[in-house]
Amino acid sequence: MSTSTNEAVSIEAPRSGRIAPKYARTPGGKGNFEMFAWLFMRVSGAILIVLIFTHLFVNLMLGDGIHAVDFGFVAGKWASPLWQVWDLVMLWLAMLHGTNGVRVIINDYADKNSTRMALKSILYIASLVIIVLGTLVIFTFDPCPAGAPLELLGDFCTA
Question: Which GO terms describe its cellular component (predicted)?
Fold first, then answer.
C-alpha cells in the first residue's frame, strides 16, 4: 500500500473523545497527586533497590550466609537501631510503593465507582494494618521476654 505525496494522513490524537475514560479526573488537585504518585514510584523504586540488595548481601553473603539466619541472628540484628531503621524504611517504602501500584491497577481496571471505592478501601486498610503491625514488631521485638518459661528462651538469654 503506497500513498502519494499529495495525500495527507490523519491520525487522531490520543483520548480524542472516541473512548471515554473509566473514571472522571478532576482538574487541579488530583492532577498534582497523580504527578507526585508517579514521581514517588520512581524515587521509591530506586531507593528500594539499594535497600533490598544491601539487605540481601548483609544477610546472605557476609558471615556464615544463609546458615546463620535464625531467631538469634534477627534478635542480634534488631538490637541495633541502624538495622531497625533500615528494615522500617524498607517496610514502609515497599508497602507504599506496592499500594500505589495496586491503586493504579484498580483505577485502570475497575469499571464501576462503587467497585473501585471498595477495592481501594480494602487495599488502604490492609496496607495500614501491615505497616502498623510491622512497625510494632520491629520496635517492640524482645527476644528475651520477662517471665517466659526457660525452655522457650534462646541460649543467648540470661536467666
Answer: membrane
Count of CA atoms in the C-beta half-sphere (13 A) of 77? 18
153 in Cβ contact with 72 (< 8 Å): no
Question: Rounded to whole angstroms, how far apart are CA atoms 24 and 6?
Answer: 40
Cell of 119: 477495592
The residue with cell 531507593 is 47
Number of other CB atoms surrounding residue 120 within 10 Å = 16
Model pLDDT for residues 27-76, shown as the tens digit of each residue: 655 568 889 999 999 999 999 999 999 999 988 888 788 888 887 788 88
Q: What is the CATH class of 30-142?
A: mainly alpha
User: 3-class DSSP state for residue 52?
Assistant: helix
